[in-house]
Design goal:
alpha/beta, 4 helices, about 30% helix
Length: about 110
């Protein structure tokens, strides 16, 4: 179920997992590269939350984007999601549990480059 996170949709780890299988979402990890290499949502892109451009995102601005960072207290994902909205993306949400919640829920992860 979607919740509202300061004007942004918030999705749970399980909701993201359900969207991954049919390829209905682009997941974006805004943690630093070393954390991304250690564990990430399968298929997640790693982008700098303050420096990505529209060309770093899918060309279709209607594509569902889910941003995440380390966890509930981290503000990087919400800030990056707002940045994507400012670039014209409409279907933007945040997995507020972050990679900490994902790993804690024992969901599948990718590691390495």
């Amino acid at each position: 179920m979607f919740a509202l996170l300061m004007g942004l949709k918030s999705v749970s780890c399980n909701e993201v997992l359900a969207l991954l299988a049919p390829g209905q979402v682009t997941v974006i990890d805004v943690n630093d590269r070393s954390r991304w290499l250690a564990a990430r949502v399968p298929g997640a892109l790693n982008l700098d939350p303050t420096a990505f451009k529209a060309s770093d995102l899918p060309a279709d601005q209607h594509t569902a984007l889910v941003f995440y960072c380390s966890g509930y207290l981290c503000r990087k994902a919400p800030n990056a999601a707002r940045r994507a909205r400012a670039l014209g993306y409409e279907n933007v949400s945040v997995m507020s549990a972050g990679i900490t919640g994902w790993v804690g829920a024992a969901l599948p992860v990718e590691r390495g480059s």
